[in-house]
């Protein structure tokens, strides 16, 4: 794509890329009133610059272009100066776990460089009203030898820390941390731009083709952090508290920062050239305005605000989850 000037940029929405993994349900289209046929909607890749699920612009003059095409036209204007290259650094998705996900692990930067695959540190923000749990990290006393024996015995799920979660809970999953999402979880996931998953145990489940899904035991053993016993549950930090606006920092790491914004009056937000803003409207209904244009954003809408946009305004009565580069 030819170079694109900053003044041609605007807040972007994308067509969701759905995944029909066998553990998925239908809460994503049902909760957010998306007009989709009956089926399994395990994941919705909301903003993705990945060959396994490429986002396509849904609104405005750039509609029909892939996110990769527009990034190649103006990477810094869209992503900001903190991001090198032309590839979007994150993958933002929704997850509906009707059944529990496999016991799995992803490489971190160091083990991906050594053993291959794409590094993946991620976080989960719980959207569902129902209390449930996740498995994240190894229990105290679980060594490599103990874990390998548990894998052979089909009991690796029992080696992980069970963490009760509810709406607004946030879980941090560094690359190398063994984990599994339990049934009933409804999640916004922020992650490094990766689709490398090493499946360790799948609870005896069959894939969509009726056969057991592939396991990746050797790869998993190579990338697990055996010293990882930290509590993965993170506590949001309050930043602003007024009558009409509350803001919390949910989590900040070297790859992404997530904030929660709740507002009932117009909120003007200046942009900086250093980072994009990736917004997800988790509750209520918002209107996003910029220059002389506006965009209705009901719950379930994902929007990418280019770094070069001078400012935007959020209006309505809504809760918005905002991802940036720290």
TrEMBL record:
Keywords: Isomerase, Metal-binding, Zinc. GO terms for molecular function: mannose-6-phosphate isomerase activity; zinc ion binding. CDD domains: cupin_PMI_type_I_N_bac. The keyword Metal-binding applies. Residues 252-323 form the Mannose-6-phosphate isomerase cupin domain. It comes from Pontiella desulfatans. This is Phosphohexomutase. Its cofactor is Zn(2+). The keyword Iron does not apply. The active site is at residue 199. Zn(2+) binds at residues 106, 122, 179. InterPro entries: Carb_Metab_Reg_Kinase/Isom, Man6P_isomerase_Firm_short, MPI_cupin_dom, PMI_typeI_cat, RmlC-like_jellyroll, RmlC_Cupin_sf. Transmembrane segments: none annotated.
